[in-house]
Fold these 4 entries.
Entry 1:
Amino acid sequence: MRIAILGASASASGAVDGILAYGISYMQGIGGLKSWQWTFLLEGSPIIPLGVLVYLLLDKVPNAVQWLNNIEKQLLTNLLRDDAGVADSESIPGTRLSWRQVRYVFIDWQIYLYSIIAGGNFAAIKYLITFLPTLTKAVGYTKTEAHLMTALPYAVACVCALLIYREVDKPMYQRGHLICGGLIAVSMVATIILRIYLMKENNRRTNLSPEEYTREVTIKEPCDRV
């Protein structure tokens, strides 16, 4: 559930970022600064004091935090001790990193599996962050409107993350996993269908006669709107 909340917060930040970008776009020239400069100031400035507060207030060991129950604290303590040999600020001799531990990093299949999962997740997020405003603008919205429209997908993702993974479904969360697996399968099928359609459409346009080409270029499509 906490992972779902973390993912939902990331989606919520994307929605807020789109709304902020929409508002900041109207600040062009205020104070002699351009809109992109205001973006850096308004979105980057809060991170500095927040980082200081996290460093000062966030506890370093599991037993000191208040938002974990005793079982979770003990579990994390055991994991830290098994992984690094140190937990709860205790000092244990001979806990320096060894070449044996380095070797395990390269032979543990779970690390490679997690890398694939994380890579796919980050690639999708990076794609949305980079190209979603461009795709929205291509539909016919202005640059300013495109920033505002990008907030909707992130808001939907935030709500879905909180609804799919429920506290009552723990510890296996089978319902959430099944829904996510189904959505991934549908997305893959839709992507394949779209890819095949685009290939056929490109081949059709390549083989157009001059008369057919002249007739089709006069047809207004949604992406041609200004």
Entry 2:
Amino acid sequence: MLIQTELKATLKRLRLSGMLATLPDRLAFARKDKLDYTDFLQLVLSDEVERRDHKHIETRLQDAGFDEECTLERFDWSAQIRIDKARLMDLFGLHFIERHENIAFSGPVGVGKTYLAQALGHAACRAGYRVLFIRTDALLKALARSRADNSFDRELRRFIAPDLIAIDDFGLRKLSGQASSDFYDLVVERHTRASTIITSNRAVDEWMAVFDEPLLGQSALDRFCHRAHQFVIDGESYRKRTAPSGKSEKLGTRLATGKAPGSSSATVDTDVGGE
């Protein structure tokens, strides 16, 4: 069924041009089922609401900066890991965001810490929350660069604003005095106002050693942990299980012994710990 040019122009002016894709089918359906005007209006407006909701979800997912599409449904529960599944599943109700609570995922490389952080972020995006996923190094570098052009306050607000921020790979490197201060500022500003997820290869009780400024570290971690659901994930690396045959065992041995490739004594650089 053809749509009149005047109607198209009117819908575009009202920013309802998205209706044009389904309007011919809806008109045909309305005539076939003899819908009254009110029911027809409800039908086409519901289509527009659904279209806009979907567009907003896609925008939030794109703005979140996820590495990949991670969802709870796609999580590999056959992986040989140990985690409190009941507590984890409860988090996907997203009540922790409503209560401005935090989450800490700690454990060795490859056990799903980053995946679960992104899966929670994905669920939050679909529920209408603003989410940001970022590596610790990238976050701190962005704040450090902002000091050069006096845009620190604006950049800090960018990290404070999301309803949920997931900070990945915390503790791979020791934080400088300035980085310790910046991380402290972020935690303090988000405390009781928004939720934060932190993933780390280090146990939570080892995080203090990362800060160059112990007082700032103690204050930041006290605030974060006070409202945090803490998960320790243990088990075999998923990457090790899916690596090409013959390579996973050698890499797993090097990671377990702390030896770098081709070396009998050097320790593995902490950069290996990307989750």
Entry 3:
Amino acid sequence: MRADGIAGDTEVRFLDPLVGDCWERAFHHAGENGLFERLLTVYNKVPGGKCSGCTACCAESVSTFFVEWLRIRDFLVKGGRWAEALRRAEAFAFDELARPMKCPMLEADGRCMIYEVRPLTCRIFGHLQAADYGRNLKAVLKANRRAADQILKHHGVVLPTAVVEKAIPYCESFISEAPMSSGERDALFDDLFSMDSRFLMAGLLEPDQIQLGLVDWFAMVRLEPEALAEERLRRAAAGSSGNAAAAETLD
């Protein structure tokens, strides 16, 4: 493994082989217990809609349940794009705190690499009513600021404002066949939480792994957690310093 944490060969090896083994057992557990069928049932409850394809919403590492991750990984492996997706996600992981970025699964032509198996978070975007979306956005920004305060307190790193205050605006162009309330949205997420609880009870998932970001699942494959955290903070500090220097120059 190179100093940047990315393996130099084309074969994807797990930093901890036990993770790969656990995921394989979890995949079979999901199949044997009908969890993938249940997942599709939840997805089918999302109303239809018309998207302009502007990709404005494809701008973060979206929350992804374990049952969704297993299906995404299987899709990429079978499609021969697992190694490519892994490299993209790793690059995103290193710079996640340093600068705003598009989702690493977004292709240059605006298509999604995992569109067929995209997470629920992606599927419901645009369906929420404007008022509910606004309240959710305020909660997200509040959590971002709280996290930034903790990073400053414990690590002395000031995160770039563009990262902390990053906000995906409400989509005015998306046409939903049946706009959803927050309660309807939460009910779908509760269904997925219930599915992930099955893995938890089977010893195939840790409590702190419930609803991780999509990129976090990729990062488990071959990036050492502590080294990744340190590199993220280092790049965030460098980005923040660069922004401050640029501001002083403009003044």
Entry 4:
Amino acid sequence: MSNVAIFWDIENVNPSSSTLFIDGLMSYVDEIGKVSYSVVVGDWHHNINHEIPLHLAENGFELIYTPQPRGKRRHRKNSVDIILITKATEMIFQLPHISTYVIITGDSDFRPLLQILKKHGKEIIVICDARNASESLLEYADDYKDYRALLPDDDQESPSPDAQAAAVSAALSKKEAFKILRESVSQMVRNKKIPTPGSVKVRMRLLNENFQGNVEGVKKWQDFINEAVKNNIITMTDDNGQTILGMPSGVPAQDELPKIFKELLDVIGEHHGQEEWVKFNKINTVMINKGIKIKEYNYSKFKKLMMDAEKRGLIETRNTGFQWYAKLK
């Protein structure tokens, strides 16, 4: 069993359902090994639920408070980074028996830390917020997840029949993979990021956690990229030895939503005038009645679909206990 350390930058990853996330995080880490050390750094008075510090303390976290004057957010952010990076680096030598590091952030400033951890043979798992995560950071991790993937399932939620069917294949169909590829490149271009084949693969997985890097009928990732270029789905250029992906000429750099999200938005929109926040299971029921099959889009659970919609900035979600709600952005 691995000895695990958790380092949480709560300024960067601050779930609205923080207490549920903490419960999900601890359950996830229990499957990995034994927690030897855990720390969270941030300003508890800055947009953070007042219940969070107590819940963290109850779960054995060391809490480091970094208050800063209003308007000095970047200075505070630098303080958080320095504290966490210093503590994690010291721990490599002070507690060498810790083999797995769970880093909760998506900030590219943590890349040097991940490089050091990798150099010392540590396993690195990054938990991030897909909306602001740095692909260049995640490329150094042995595994990475959007924090929403750790939120406990809602026992009150009525699962779709598709969720009870056979498990979804780990490999996406080539057609669906091309759609996510195009969406990922478009999103990165819009956000002024550099879409390399590796970073785009990371973004694809963040947008759809069912994607594990496998595409039906494709053995090598570069073969998939080459075929996408050949079919004018994306472009590929060389910039001083670095391969850069892009959108074909004349195609706007905007997200090209898969059909399932357009259908989801239509369903939520139907209730928007009646109620601001709509229950997940109500949305799910309407979609089932309309014959919308989420399995066809590689979703085995309705909640995963909703979390992926939130990652794209299409909806907002909140919870009351285990009851989940959504509204249009």
